[in-house]
Please model this.
Amino acid sequence: MPVTPLQRGRRRALIGLGVVLATVSAFGIYRAASGDAGSPPVNVTFVLGGGSEVRKAVGGSPQGTGLAIQGSFRGLAAAPDGTVYLFTQENQGMVMWKRAASGSTTRIPLTGVDNQTAEQTAVASDGSVYLATGDSLWKTRPDGKTTKLVDTKCDNPQPFVDSSINEFCTGQVVGVTITANGTVYFGDQTILGQHASYVHRLRGDMVELVAGRPPQDNESLLRTNPAVKNGIDPPAGTKAKDVLVPDIWNSGWLASSASGIYWRTGPGIVRINADDTLTPLVGARDPDSISELKGPFDSIGNALDVEIRKGTISSSRGDLATLPDRFEVYYTDAHETHSPPFSSEYRWAGDKTATQKEFIDHLLGGKVTYRVSGGNIAPVIAGVRAIAASGDSLYIAAESESEGGTTGVLQVELPEKS
Model:
């Protein structure tokens, strides 16, 4: 839905209370930032899509930003080498767009899967892409052949028990990440009966439990239960397998870094350490202490005080990503969606072609992205469909009504490392 115009003096945009971006001036979306008051706008650069040519990315021109990528968004991934993957749904089926760091672009039709939307993705060293789609965990080879790895169709899911991958069954798979050593971790949930969220890893043909436990009979699912609270804001030494994460719609997303695995646990984010203990990153301690929304990358408070607001069944879910070269964690708030016109600070600035301006002018509603850095929380950009990270680069996917419905990938210009 459109951004709600409010006066800055009346605006108090707590993450725990939802985010409203104010249209506070009459600046046009593409007016130069040099004369603006307050924070400068967010600069973005198209890396895939936003062009005018359709379906010609098979060993010839145009490439990358010359393309108009028609179809609905189905997933975004980025590899450590800077290769970006965009998944879309066309009339004939799902497609994977692969854009190398050199700009070379390939369109690869997928086989074995159709009409799935990835909640999260991860790229392996061999170029395979893992898709957590709720329905299952899928693996897409570089040639587009896709196979289902995890079963979610069984009468009695028991994801809290280690088992072979052929015997393992859970309710849904919503998160996936791959560590530097190639280990695949996925976030999954039981959605009927015993509501709970878990983290598992693949070891050969075995599935091993890493974090989370099922609720006991008649156990409270409220935050007054220490097992639930410790899954959001765990004290030092809390074991990952001892916490109960019952907020299944808003949990399960993962991201990896050298320091551990980050896990979205409903209103918070925790890090799973090498010794299987938890450390809080976003802790929902004191949401009222978070200040009003400022400009992009301007801190609005301590990340441990932030409470991530719930998404809804009808909304797209959130995202989680790390920038290993910057020691930063990024996530999106899926409670509300925002479309142009944005306020002067939050408009998507930078040099654009006419078709790229048309794309941005007609963005479909997207989420707000936040950065956690040095213990502080800051808004970054609005109108985002999904995020992915590689090295020190943050990529966003967006959908537009331009050209009858197109999808694009852009890189966000980040501040210099502190």
